[in-house]
Amino acid sequence: MLKDYLRRSRAPRYSILFALPLLVLYEGLSALLTHSAVAGVRNGADVLLKSLFVALGGRDGLVVFGLLLVGGGAALVVRDFKKSGERLSFGVFGGMLIESGLYAALFGFVVGWLTTLLLEGPRHLAIGGSPALDLHTQLVVSLGAGIYEELLFRVVLVGALMWGCRRVLRAGTALAATIAVVLSALIFSSFHYVGALGDTFTVASFTFRALAGVAFSALYVTRGFGITAWTHALYDLGLSLLVVSSRAGAGCWVLTRMIESKMGRNTSIGWSPLIRPPSM
């Protein structure tokens, strides 16, 4: 039964449909906040992908991007349905949501511990300045991190690197996947320091994000796009809420880790493992 769940949940008909609500929520809420498909405060990967198509074809390029995204996903789902000959099981979607939630809950602790273990440096990183964005915008951009960062850095980048390793280096599947995971993780980490709203570079934050990139890429290779996208989105959503609750001044210690609170295009906040919320 578990083997059957693992097989089906990774299939395109489940993986893509599972990620669809993230896309609808992000685009719908972003449109309400910014009244634009590209302007305003959006996730950096979203801006990068759409800006490329806009640069090539103006507003028609944006239409082409939407058609490729939705049409390509629909084609993969339909092809997988025909190949499998099976009906959808909503129990599989429920299992995928639970699995994503568990990964999101464990993610910060594991990656934060590995960062400390590798650096052997200070365990405490001070909270950054107060964010320029309100909670609603932070939550929307967190949804965008799940769908567009995973689309760019996992589906596109990991896929392209694996293809290149196989064709150019003649590498086997395992070696190609390893090279793709590591290189994409380094690029993913570097992405957060680019642009006017990029974060200030530190070895600790770069290492954390590189390890996060490895974890997300490995999850994508083994569990597919849908679970990886939801894991990323739930992780960012939870930590955005944690930021707000800690600043509200509850009189207790808060266990935290380095987080990515997607404010603007690709900025972040660094948290220490143990930080006392400021008194009111």
Draw up the topology in text.
Blueprint: H1 2-10, H2 12-34, H3 44-84, H4 90-119, H5 135-167, H6 173-191, H7 203-223, H8 225-247, E1 254-255, E2 259-263, E3 267-269, E4 274-275
Antiparallel strand pairs: 1-4, 2-3
Helix pairs in contact: 2-3, 2-5, 2-8, 3-5, 4-7, 4-8, 5-6, 5-7, 5-8, 6-7, 7-8
What key attributes describe this structure?
4 strands; mainly alpha; two-stranded antiparallel sheet; single chain
Question: Beta-strand level of the residues, as a percent range?
Answer: under 5%
Q: How many domains? A: 1
List the strand order in the largest sheet.
1-4
Query: What about the largest sheet?
Result: 2 strands, antiparallel
Radius of gyration using CA atoms only: 19 Å
- How far apart, in Å, are the first and last alpha carbons? 52 Å
Task: State the helicity in percent bands.
Answer: over 70%
With helices defined by DSSP (H or I, 4 residues minimum), what is the helix count? 8
Structural class: mainly alpha
Backbone shape: globular
Mean pLDDT: 78
Following the backbone from N to C, one meets helices and strands in this order, namely HHHHHHHHEEEE
- Compute the number of strand runs: 4
Q: Ranges with pLDDT <50 over ≥5 residues?
A: 121-131, 250-280
